[in-house]
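Fold these two proteins, one after the other.
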Amino acid sequence: MIQSHAVVGTPHASRYLQQLAKHWAHKFETTFDPHSARIALPLGEARLAATDEALTIDLSTDDAAKLPDFQAVLVRHVERFAFRETLHFDWT
């Protein structure tokens, strides 16, 4: 299992987590509350956690070649919801 992790500083983490989960809930297996989410996507599984200061994103996939695309998909979607602020994603 290949994993990737990012902590994105934002005071709106819970809002973005919920928007993302609701956005994908109609297509993919999704569970969420205001503080955590699990989304099963074709590229792998995304787990998100929200605090007052940051959105934590943990991705896991079976295929290392898919990881850059998986990260890009998450970044594009979160940035779409966060159009009023600039977010920084540092993947490890």
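Now the second one:
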Amino acid sequence: MEETISLRELFQTLRKRAWLIIAMTVIATMISGIVSYFVLTPIYQASTQLLVNQAKSEQPIYNINEIQTNLQLINTYNVIMKSPAILDIVKDELDLNMSIEELNEKINVTSEKDSQVVNVTVEDPDPHMAADIANTVANVFQREIVKIMNVDNVNILAKAEVKEQPVPVKPKPLLNMAIAFVVGMMTGVGLAFLLEYLDNTIKNEQDVEKLLELPVLGAVTTIDEEGKEAKALQAKKQVRGETIGS
């Protein structure tokens, strides 16, 4: 019985504060859409691929015969690719007006699982600049790795290209609006229950029973002026009817 009453009160609270829940949901979704479409700067992405072959040097340390050794060498290359030794040259060749740290944040270097393929991904508000940075990093690395590690085992598989109508990778307005919709609804529901919890006014007989823990013997209803006039008119009709009948 207690569980049924609790569920009933739960739905009554949601229905009572439905306007608040709807308002919070709509406001959160609208704000997310406005920010995603008109405030946040679109970011574009460009990628290039490098292939790390087995070392051509005769030194034993570069004679890669096992996959684990190949992966370790690729991890070393990933670090070198984002080092100042490479990025300084990239910055000078492209005449970039940014620091090495800012350029480093735009570049992401990953390697395919159990393979010798390295992906260089660059994100930038300008899609053409993103492609230029990715291609320049690959070219500079291929040229400079010969001097740094005395090996020539890097080949460029695919260059970064800009599509005719590039699509930004972020922000994602629809995803942001969906998240804002859920968060707004949850916030509205939480706020509705909080307001109901803080509202300690007595509204009906059930509240009196809960507060005093005593049974309610009677209740006085509120009669407005229209109700009084209607009842008086009805009483007059009844009196007239009885008089005529007698």
